[in-house]
Design a protein that fits this description.
- The chain is built from 6 helices and 7 strands.
- The chain is an alpha/beta fold and 193 residues long.
- Strands 1, 2, 3, 4, 5, 6 and 7 form a 7-stranded mixed sheet that branches.
- Strand 5, helix 5 and strand 6 form a beta-alpha-beta unit.
- Helix 1 crosses helix 6.
- The longest helix is centred in the last third of the chain and has 29 residues.
């Protein structure tokens, strides 16, 4: 039985700390045997505003289909003015396309949350906002949400996290979402039999 995990997040800046944090946690989830699909900042930046005149049928379909098949989701957002960025929130708005599914929105999925910001207060308020969004989407947030205070030099040029506190949080969120995803996949498999 294969476990599917989707990672969503980043910023409009290539190589952002947010996307590096997401990829590190995703690699930890995949190390447990999960199949992984990442939707980073470049993908999110190309999405039109959900429901706007620029939004056409099929926009974001890769993201929606990946989440539809997923057992777990990782979401990483920068804290902008104390809350989730519009870029990441818009991507999550596309999950409205799952509203009429048998498993609507994020129902039956483990969801690992990562927030990044230059200050601790912004990481915490952003994490609270993300937990509220995930609960509204019927998802199951992992016990730990990673709050990463960013600064120049937190990640090496090859994507290694150079601070133990941040690295350990990201690894644990990745491991928790993988465990939760396996549990949800196993329960769904048993229910089908």
């Amino acid at each position: 039985m294969s476990t599917q995990i989707v990672a969503i997040g980043g910023t409009v800046n290539p190589g952002s700390a947010t996307e590096q944090a997401l990829r590190l946690a995703a690699a930890c989830a995949a190390a447990g045997g999960a199949e992984l699909q990442v939707f980073g900042g470049a993908y999110l930046a190309a999405l039109p505003h959900y429901g706007s005149e620029a939004h056409a049928k099929g926009n974001g379909s890769e993201l929606v289909e990946a989440v539809r098949r997923a057992d777990g989701v990782l979401i990483a957002a920068p804290g902008y003015h104390g809350t989730i960025s519009g870029l990441v929130k818009n991507a999550l708005d596309f999950l409205e396309d799952l509203s009429e599914d048998e498993r609507p929105y994020l129902d039956g999925r483990a969801v690992g949350l990562i927030t990044t910001a230059y200050g601790d207060q912004a990481t915490m308020s952003t994490l609270f906002a993300m937990r509220s969004i995930v609960h509204a989407l019927r998802g199951w947030p992992t016990p730990l949400g990673a709050t990463i205070r960013t600064y120049h030099g937190l990640f090496s040029p090859d994507g290694k996290c150079l601070e133990d506190r941040a690295r350990l949080q990201l690894e644990l969120v990745g491991q928790q979402v993988a465990r939760g995803a396996r549990a949800f996949a196993l329960a769904a498999n048993e229910a089908e039999q």
